[in-house]
Amino acid sequence: xxxxxxxxxxxxxxxxxxxxxxxxxxxxxxxxxxxxxxxxxxxxxxxxxxxxxxxxxxxxxxxxxxxxxxxxxxxxxxxxxxxxxxxxxxxxxxxxxxxxxxxxxxxxxxxxxxxxxxxxxxxxxxxxxxxxxxxxxxxxxxxxxxxxxxxxxxxxxxxxxxxxxxxxxxxxxxxxxxxxxxxxxxxxxxxxxxxxxxxxxxxxxxxxxxxxxxx
Length: 215
What we know:
This protein is α/β, with parallel strands linked by helices. Helix content is 59%, strand content 10%. The protein has 2 domains: 2-83, Methionine synthase domain (Methyltransferase, Methionine Synthase (B12-binding Domains), Chain A, domain 1), CATH 1.10.1240.10; 93-213, Rossmann fold.
């Protein structure tokens, strides 16, 4: 199908950091009334490839940040169309934040975008979030799923502190905690006492569906 070719080209253009081409491809897809979720998924695939290139040393932090800006600006044009699709009922609320000692938010923002596209509401605490604030916010809003993000290995202790904050607040039993980020792993999940490890944004959405939507 023609739109599949356009979606692939959009993804490749984002991976190549060709901002003008991304804008042009996006406008064409929107004019052709391609499903907004398909466009979001194509942009996300482009970002996943950027992440791979960054891990392998082919891209540097500047490229990673630039790709994040392209992604953010592109999804901002698509999100309003999702709301117009009708019949969208919130599947639940997810609390997200980058833990204390880390200010990286690119991966977190991609997860938030996909969660919102899947019908979830997201409360984003931002970056460099103290451990106690996660527990307090989850309690205030009655949230049952929390996502802890970190890119720096030096922030792993902060992840552990955030998990412990729920135990200290007496809410650990009712709150599920997932972790994610470039340096995190399933082993880290076990070490700090979290419940789930999201390998990527799609995995995080599947976890949210399992916990909050029962599917």
